[in-house]
Amino acid sequence: MAERIVFKNVEAPNSRELETYRARGGYRALEKALKEIKPDDLIDIVKRSGLRGRGGAGFPAGLKWSFVPKESKLPKYLCCNADESEPGTFKDRVIIEKDPHLLLEGITLTCYAIGIHTAYIYIRGEMVFGARVLEQAIAEAQRAGFLGNNILGSDFHLEIYVHRGAGAYICGEETALMESLEGKRGEPRVKPPFPATRGLFGGPTVINNVETLANIPDIVLKGPEWFAAIGTEKSTGTRVFCVSGHVNRPGTYELPMGVTARDLIYEHAGGIRGGRPLKAFIPGGSSVPFLTAEHLDVKLDFESVAQAGSLLGSAGFIVMDDTTCMVWAALNLCHFYEHESCGQCTPCREGTRWMSVVLERIEHGRGRQQDLDLLLDVCSNIRGQTLCPFGDAALTPVESTVKLFRSEYESHIQGKGCPFAP
Amino acid sequence: MLSPAGMEKFQQLLKRYPNKQAALLPTLHLVQSEVGYVSKEAIDFVAGLLALSPTYVHSVASFYTMFYKEKMGKYVIQVCRTLPCALCGSRKILEYLKGKLGIEVGETTPDGKFSLVTVECLASCGTAPVIQINDDYYEGLNLEKVDRILEQLSRE
Ligand SMILES: Cc1cc2nc3c(=O)[nH]c(=O)nc-3n(C[C@H](O)[C@H](O)[C@H](O)COP(=O)(O)O)c2cc1C
Ligand code: FES
């Protein structure tokens, strides 16, 4: 069994209780840090660990923290991104529901390192149970002196609040998240200014994903070298791969970065259901390009997946067998983006609608030969033309399936219908 | 509009933020949990509580799909339609529910018991297909499980 970091406690009985967490070594990293480690040294430790953001973009966590000014007139904030809405991604929910104290300890260590005294956990609105678990864990930690004033007898103080979203994918984007937290429509902001200098309520702000923060306690306790020895040189540590779709054992698998797609599908997730051939997989959530059976030996780390033409993103790993129609799959995701576009930028708002219309007619046998170039044309008119990366995400399923499966699109058009329709 | 307990919760909420506006989403959640949806009166009420204009509160509330604009059934059945669930048969679950309840997506049964809507990925794709009914997730569904769930809720 490979070493587990963020999922180390999830199978323990009563894992969400403080008592269990403490019995398994919980809050020891916080004790150690408050006694022995200066905030700046803590940032340095996280830098040396090589930890990169698990929310999607893979930005080095320690480096992000170091952008926050030491002195600030306005309060500094941490936003823990628990919006988890990228289709195919379902790992943060496990950490929240099964090991909330691990997340709270990670948040507290992060705030100590950066000099933050207020943190918000922005959790997607649908996760009512998760929000309740977090509220309870916060109350427990407060009573035990791990949160609030004079944490563990030190002069460090911190409040953590749970803030529920209300059903909008875009609020996972960090600037939309801050808008939403401020009581506004979740419409992304223009960058710069970057959150590290001007973020929530105008103060310097760090936004990190749940899984990113859940790595911090072990990095503090076991050291950056220990962490950096796991995974690959540039993608250190583990990753929780969320395997869904046509596999025998869908679920979450925490494995060292750099495991191959083949091992993930065939060893861990039990292979394709019914022993069927693999047709396509999406390695990093719905916003990254599709890959095919040709890419089974690609190592799942940031660099290798990028080299293969996709992205590791959120590690939402969606598997499709040979019975899956690629036009249908692209249409399904295009509907998602059309529905979730915040509507601020015209190319995104109009482009997603237009692509849906064209995909719909191709899927239903009314497509025209020119439609393929039309789709690619719409894609190139969205790319880079929007305020936030949502636009580029939205065109990706369409563009990558047209490129990888052009003949399948053509057979829809020539045969006037979907060859996969029952 | 809010119960005394609800007002107490509201007062606690305000302490979490440096300004009142930031309490807007939690306050809307609170009102919806008591009233069932975000009515015109609810918008005026929340605007008053937070010193915001009703137009502003409406423009924010309408951005978020979880705030219902009209009265919903006692049980709001939310069927996930996104790719991972679709690969595992969510379409069949949806068609079955439509047939059993005799309503289309977006409708409520005449007795006011069930509303049927589709939603996007619920972050539970490993146990697809998934539906959410009010606050609770129902995972790894098949038609028999759907039958049992509906039977149980009908009795309540
Ligand atoms: C459209 C969009 C949706 C996003 N959704 C999420 C999300 O649900 N959860 C998340 O952690 N990051 C999400 N992100 C990434 C965040 O903007 C941000 O990069 C991340 O939270 C930073 O944390 P990290 O450095 O720890 O990964 C999203 C980005 C975009 C553009
Ligand atoms: S697609 Fe249904 S839960 Fe993710």
From TrEMBL, chain A:
Pfam families: Complex1_51K, NADH_4Fe-4S, SLBB_2
Cofactor names: FMN; [4Fe-4S] cluster
Enzyme Commission number(s): 7.1.1.-
Top-level lineage group: Bacteria
GO molecular function, one term: quinone binding
Catalyzed reactions per annotation: a quinone + NADH + 5 H(+)(in) = a quinol + NAD(+) + 4 H(+)(out)
Keyword annotations: 4Fe-4S, Flavoprotein, FMN, Iron, Iron-sulfur, Metal-binding, NAD, Oxidoreductase, Quinone, Translocase
Domain NADH-ubiquinone oxidoreductase 51kDa subunit iron-sulphur binding: 327-372
Entry-linked InterPro entries: NADH-UbQ_OxRdtase_51kDa_CS, NADH-UbQ_OxRdtase_suF, Nuo51_FMN-bd, Nuo51_FMN-bd_sf, Nuop51_4Fe4S-bd, Nuop51_4Fe4S-bd_sf, SLBB_dom
Family: Belongs to the complex I 51 kDa subunit family.
Function statement: NDH-1 shuttles electrons from NADH, via FMN and iron-sulfur (Fe-S) centers, to quinones in the respiratory chain.
Protein name: NADH-quinone oxidoreductase subunit F
Organism: Tectimicrobiota bacterium
UniProtKB/TrEMBL annotation, chain B:
A single MF term (Gene Ontology): active transmembrane transporter activity
Cofactor(s) this protein cannot do without: [2Fe-2S] cluster
Enzyme Commission code: 1.6.5.11
Enzyme class: oxidoreductase
Cofactor: how bound: Binds 1 [2Fe-2S] cluster.
Entry keywords, A to Z: 2Fe-2S, Iron, Iron-sulfur, Metal-binding, NAD, Oxidoreductase, Translocase
UniProt-listed GO biological process terms: inorganic cation transmembrane transport
One Pfam family here: 2Fe-2S_thioredx
InterPro entries in the record: NuoE-like, NuoE_dom, NuoE_N, Thioredoxin-like_sf
Residue numbers binding [2Fe-2S] cluster: 80, 85, 121, 125
One cellular-component annotation, GO: membrane protein complex
NCBIfam families per the UniProt record, alphabetical: nuoE_fam, PRK07539.1-2
Recorded family membership: Belongs to the complex I 24 kDa subunit family.
Protein's name in the database: NADH-quinone oxidoreductase subunit NuoE
Taxonomic lineage: Bacteria, Pseudomonadati, Nitrospinota/Tectimicrobiota group, Candidatus Tectimicrobiota
Gene coding for it: nuoE
